[in-house]
Amino acid sequence: MATTTMGSTRDVALNLGLLVLRTGAGLALATHGYPKLFGGEGKQPHRIASKLLGKNFPATFEHGGTERFGQGLEQMGVPYPRVAAHLTGLTEFGGGLALAFGLGTRLVTPAIVFNMCVAIGKAHWSNGFHGQGGFEMPSLFAVMAAALCLTGPGDFSLDALIDTQDVLPFPLS
Questions:
Q1: Residue 108: which domain range?
Q2: Rg of the chain, C-alpha, whole Å
Q3: Which residues contact 140 (CB under 8 A, 6 or more apart)?
Q4: Is the dihedral of CA 36, 19, 112, 2 positive or negative?
Q5: In this structure, is residue 104 part of a structural domain?
Q6: CA angle (6, 101, 35) in 5-degree steps
Q7: What are the angstrom distances between the C-alpha of 88 and each of 51, 62, 107, 114, 125?
Q8: How far apart (Å, rounded) are the C-alpha atoms in residues 123 and 134?
Q9: What CA–CA distance (Å, rounded) separates 171 from 47?
Q10: What is the pLDDT of residues 108-153, one digit of tens each?
Q11: pTM over 0.85
Q12: Looking at the domain assignment, is residue 167 inside a domain?
């Protein structure tokens, strides 16, 4: 999918829609990875993050961290739980930011889909789709990432700016 020539109202609306989807999904995903990578007992998030993410975020951050997350993954039977904890945090935080900026979109989205599918299978499936601990949120992240992998990030992205929208880790057609 090559970069379109911006001009028609439909092209602008399509690319604005992809921008909104990308930034919303990417920033939300990054907020899930941030405490996994940088949190932990006795740690506090940056004051701006606390203010933006709400009064419950500092407690989430303090209960985060790769060590604690890795222990949880080990209890779920995830192989190499410490490595998986780092990769999950990196996929959610780094992949979320990359998605928000539209940078490497078609490279990070398969990793996000895989990460969310593992999360659904290992942590959320037994709780059902809806409600506390359900797989509603990870399934939304997976669906949004899959859609963006198929469509590309759109013209309002860093991928478009540096002309990397057609880069895929696998052939699309």
A1: 27-161
A2: 17
A3: 25
A4: negative
A5: yes
A6: 160
A7: 25, 18, 15, 10, 18
A8: 9
A9: 43
A10: 999 999 999 999 999 999 999 999 999 999 999 999 999 999 999 9
A11: yes
A12: no
